[in-house]
């Protein structure tokens, strides 16, 4: 659901009065932090560590963060020296029992004081000694002091550690036996994480066991486990150690031999509680036993996602790849490979592999009523009815059919543009086939994810009552796949879009007549080409301080068809003599888009989020302007929030300054003009908790604009030039995010700091910061 936005002007006095109130509350919070601290105890405000060594070569600074992580407990949450959660706890009665909303506020939004008596410095010292041993410092000494003030009732613990030289590895020896597993382990030695002269480090020893286990799992050792590997470590003189990698004597015999598949069977209708031995006779497909038959799923299609075969050595990668691919088909709720050991043959073990698949519900229908908000400022109620079939052609093909309808009105802040209405109805269908359909036999066997071929067909009818009606059709054919969890490639070599203008009003025709560039943008809306996009996304990986989203894309139209037309007719492409297809002028352009996001997670609560949007569309041949549906707009709740949707650009062009007084059609038409071929936009937002996890705050700044590639006399100042920096619009503000679990309600108050339509990059002179714009939306802007 796309977010609605509203725009409201606020006075500067109200803004600063709110800030003053917050500052006063902060002072009160600081004064009452120790109100609930028991007599004779202290409010624990944290600890620190200082590491020293008599040996100058010892890197004591590198040890301090490691030892700091061992300090417990964590003090009360603080922000700019204040402790708002502790203040709420005290304000709601502290340790006294409360009922109703007061108890909810105290337990959910507040937190009790963390006391010095809970710190237990002796235990913390023990944890620090363990960490030093794990890093090769075998003879450390530790002590601590408590820094407390009776008057403030606060205390801090200072720890001090003294360490000697770090032990390093002198010799590494792997198992020396001639059995299968010892030989396999020795073969991994060239890639070992343990190196002679490296510092002794317990985490690296643990990682080495995991590495060996991973390799053995790819060599058939199904029952092997990293716990069967142990280390014997002998210390020597001069701070050296010898490391001996050994197998446990208690390791079971089945863990020491590799296993091969004896029989692979597939059950496509398995349910919890079923017994696989009771199944009817299977279909024999190649070497596989396929249950129950092919009336529901074609065996060939399912086996495109299976990477285990009779006679192969067990491989955990192929095992997990099979499960991932089968689940990625989207037609099964559960996928499991169940292994059963069989009698050994020679030095190898044997496994039967039963692939058990539980089907998801095949068909579903869903209706959704929603609020539609578009970048052109239209908003209103809409309805979408969706039909889904997860196995349309017995090959796990996903068929999606959507019927959409909406009735919208202009809610722009400009009164001349408010009240305009638009109706839209349409239908689209998509077919996702879980394989690559091409003249060549392509099977991407290295990925954990299922490649897909996608077909899309759609129709839209739009009735903008004051202007025109429009029919549009689109067809797309392409491929998508993920080689890794963070990377997705989308290739659509066939893209056809056609829009036809119907029943334009006389006023609309008059406006187009005086705007030839815009008229061409509406006329040349036959697109025959392709588009391509790469997505690199680490946002879903938790625990990272730095997260990225990078998505470059290319969009082309008319290249091959224009070449064909030129060869056929012996005539170069030219806007005056356009290439046509059945009388319709063909759009010719090349367009590049880039979206990047970077999130710096300062802590798990404080985040600096940034985004950059860039785009460049180059019309050529037939076209001197991009098709209208491919042009850029800027402004609004998910863009530059200090300006309404599509109220900026291109460049320093100001349609309001050129409007004829009293000509309401010309004024309401102005937002059609505010599109461009080039886009530059940057956003930065600092997010922080207020009453975590339900209420969060943000401070933000947005900047950007759009421009034209070619000069348009009807839009003076719209062409891109060397002084584009001075033409950037800038806005800043603050916002609240209300997390209600299912979605986030966003309230942003933004003020324009620079408006490119004002002389010398000025701004409206209403109040200290100008006219504030209030954006109400669902979800984060990026």
UniProtKB/TrEMBL annotation:
Cite the entry's keywords alphabetically.
Cell outer membrane, Membrane, Signal, Transmembrane
Q: Does the keyword RNA-binding apply?
A: no
Which interval of the chain is the signal sequence?
1-29
Q: What are the residue boundaries of the Bacterial surface antigen (D15) domain, all occurrences included?
A: 583-760
Compartments it resides in: Membrane
Give the primary localization class.
Answer: membrane
* A GO-annotated cellular component: outer membrane
Question: What protein does this entry describe?
Answer: BamA/TamA family outer membrane protein
Q: Which organism is it from?
A: Rufibacter hautae
């Amino acid at each position: 659901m796309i977010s609605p936005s509203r725009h409201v002007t606020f006075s500067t006095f109200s803004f600063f009065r709110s800030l003053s109130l917050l500052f006063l509350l902060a002072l009160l919070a600081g004064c009452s932090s120790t109100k609930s601290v028991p007599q004779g105890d202290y409010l624990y405000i944290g600890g620190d560590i200082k590491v020293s060594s008599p040996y100058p070569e010892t890197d004591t600074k590198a040890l301090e963060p490691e030892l700091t992580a061992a300090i417990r407990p964590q003090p009360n949450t603080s922000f700019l020296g204040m402790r708002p959660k502790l203040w709420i706890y005290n304000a709601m009665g502290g340790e006294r029992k409360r009922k109703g909303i007061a108890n909810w506020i105290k337990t959910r939004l507040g937190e009790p004081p963390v006391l010095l008596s809970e710190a237990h410095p002796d235990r913390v010292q023990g944890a620090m000694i363990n960490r030093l041993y794990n890093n090769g410092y075998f003879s450390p000494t530790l002590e601590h002091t408590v820094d407390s003030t009776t008057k403030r009732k606060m205390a801090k613990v200072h720890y001090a550690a003294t360490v000697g030289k770090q032990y390093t590895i002198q010799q590494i020896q792997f198992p020396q036996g001639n059995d299968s597993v010892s030989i396999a382990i020795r073969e991994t030695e060239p890639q070992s994480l343990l190196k002679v002269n490296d510092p002794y480090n317990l985490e690296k020893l643990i990682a080495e066991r995991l590495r060996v286990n991973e390799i053995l799992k790819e060599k058939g050792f199904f029952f092997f486990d990293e716990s069967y590997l142990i280390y014997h470590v002998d210390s020597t003189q001069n701070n050296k150690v010898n490391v001996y990698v050994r197998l446990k004597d208690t390791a079971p015999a089945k863990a020491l031999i590799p296993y091969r598949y004896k029989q692979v069977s597939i059950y496509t209708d398995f349910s919890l509680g079923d017994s696989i031995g009771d199944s009817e006779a299977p279909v024999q497909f190649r070497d596989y036993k396929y249950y129950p038959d092919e009336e529901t799923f074609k065996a060939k299609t399912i086996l495109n996602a299976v990477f285990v075969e009779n006679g192969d050595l067990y491989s955990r990668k192929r095992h997990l790849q099979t499960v991932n691919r089968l689940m990625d088909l989207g037609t099964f709720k559960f996928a499991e490979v169940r292994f059963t050991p069989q009698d050994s043959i020679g030095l190898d073990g044997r496994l039967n592999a039963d692939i058990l698949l539980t089907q998801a519900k095949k068909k579903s229908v869903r209706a959704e009523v929603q609020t539609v908000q578009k970048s052109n400022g239209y908003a209103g109620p809409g309805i979408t009815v969706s039909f889904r079939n997860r196995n349309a052609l017995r090959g796990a093909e996903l068929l999606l059919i959507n019927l959409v309808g909406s009735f919208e009105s202009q809610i722009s802040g400009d009164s001349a543009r408010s009240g305009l209405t638009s109706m839209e109805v349409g239908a689209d269908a998509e077919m996702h086939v879980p394989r690559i359909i091409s003249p060549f036999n392509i099977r991407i066997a290295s990925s954990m994810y299922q490649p897909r071929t996608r077909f899309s067909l759609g129709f839209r009818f739009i009735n903008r009552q004051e202007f025109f009606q429009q029919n549009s059709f689109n067809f797309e054919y392409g491929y998508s796949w993920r080689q890794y969890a963070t990377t997705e490639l989308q290739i659509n070599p066939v893209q056809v879009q056609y829009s036809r203008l119907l029943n334009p009003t006389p006023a609309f025709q008059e406006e187009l007549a005086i705007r030839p560039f815009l008229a061409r943008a509406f006329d040349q809306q036959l697109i025959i080409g392709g588009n391509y996009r790469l997505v690199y996304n680490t946002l879903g990986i938790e625990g990272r301080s730095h997260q990225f989203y990078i998505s470059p894309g290319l969009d082309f139209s008319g290249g091959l068809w224009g070449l064909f037309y030129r060869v056929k007719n012996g005539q170069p492409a030219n806007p005056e003599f356009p290439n046509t297809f059945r009388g319709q002028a063909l759009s010719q352009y090349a367009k590049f888009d880039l979206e990047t996001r970077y999130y710096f997670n300062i802590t798990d609560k404080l985040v600096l989020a940034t985004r950059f949007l860039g785009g460049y569309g180059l019309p050529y041949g037939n076209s001197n302007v991009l098709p209208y549906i491919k042009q850029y707009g800027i402004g609004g709740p998910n863009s530059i929030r200090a300006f309404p949707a599509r109220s900026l650009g291109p460049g320093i062009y100001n349609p309001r300054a050129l409007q004829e007084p009293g000509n309401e059609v010309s004024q309401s038409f102005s937002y059609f003009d505010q599109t461009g071929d080039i886009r530059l936009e940057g956003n930065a937002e600092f997010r922080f908790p207020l009453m975590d996890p339900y209420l969060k705050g943000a401070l933000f700044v947005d900047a950007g604009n759009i421009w034209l590639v070619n000069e348009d006399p009807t839009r003076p100042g719209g062409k891109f030039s060397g002084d584009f920096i001075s033409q950037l619009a800038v806005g800043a503000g603050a916002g609240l995010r209300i997390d209600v679990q299912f979605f986030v309600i966003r309230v942003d108050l933004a003020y324009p700091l620079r408006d490119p339509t004002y002389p010398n990059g000025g701004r409206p002179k209403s109040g200290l910061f100008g006219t504030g714009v209030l954006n109400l939306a669902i979800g984060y802007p990026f």
